[in-house]
Amino acid sequence: MRAPLIAGNWKMNGSLELVATFAEELSRTALPGGVEVALMVPFPYLEVARSRLPETVGVGAQTLSDQPSGAFTGEVSGGMLADLGVQMVLVGHSERRTLYREDDAAVLARVRAALGVGLVPVLCLGETLEERDAERTEAVVLGQLEAVLDALTADERQRLVLAYEPVWAIGTGRTATPDQAQQVHAAIRARLASYDAQLAETTKVLYGGSMKPSNAVELLAQPDIDGGLIGGASLQVDDFLAICHSAG
Ligand code: 13P
């Protein structure tokens, strides 16, 4: 079965001090058994996060270059992340898609770059409010999914984690209801099954968008929700730990 994964996405927030706080708290608090936990921190904090967090806590980056090396000022390659002991990387987060204009081709190139160096890509999918209101949610989300999966081999597809993050629920305090989220997660899983039944069985599909201690239990109880990608609430160690325990 799929072990739940609770991943915090700090976005462009945090500090060395916050890394230290998390390292301290996560080291002295027992994490719930059977729950995988990870933190996606800004690039400058990856190394200290990897060295100070307990080994059982995964460390992830929030993006990567689509290129392996070269004259790309300001970019960070997957190889550099792997060098630091980083295990996973977000790809296709809606903030990257919209603010940095990463389209499906750019997302695919980054997924390939991550897979090429052994990082787990956490592929984010989600519709805008406008798209939801136009009843295009599944078309948009499954389109984003297929743009990547169609280009990968069966082996490569097995190495992804997916995250459904409705854009209208990110940072807005407005969460998808458990039913709304489950419906999209079920559609994602059905599409995975159209590639191969085992892929549908094993792929984790996380929910993200204003997940917090007060709504995590209900969301995580849905059969096709395998964990959470937590933004704002992952900046407070108590809230983050409470969500981890909701998954246990
Ligand atoms: P919030 O939890 O702040 O809504 O952010 C969700 C998100 O974008 C995680 O990647």
TrEMBL record:
The active site is at residues 93, 165. SUPFAM superfamilies: Triosephosphate isomerase (TIM). GO terms for molecular function: triose-phosphate isomerase activity. One of its GO terms (biological process) is glycerol catabolic process. CDD domains: TIM (cd00311). It is found in: Cytoplasm. It catalyses: D-glyceraldehyde 3-phosphate = dihydroxyacetone phosphate. InterPro entries: Aldolase_TIM (IPR013785), TIM_sf (IPR035990), TrioseP_Isoase_bac/euk (IPR022896), Triosephosphate_isomerase (IPR000652), Triosephosphate_isomerase_AS (IPR020861). Keywords: Cytoplasm, Gluconeogenesis, Glycolysis, Isomerase. Substrate binds at residues 9-11, 171, 210, 231-232. It comes from the Bacteria. The keyword GTP-binding does not apply. One of its GO terms (cellular component) is cytosol. Gene3D superfamilies: Aldolase class I. Involved in the gluconeogenesis. Catalyzes stereospecifically the conversion of dihydroxyacetone phosphate (DHAP) to D-glyceraldehyde-3-phosphate (G3P). Belongs to the triosephosphate isomerase family. This is Triosephosphate isomerase. The gene is tpiA.
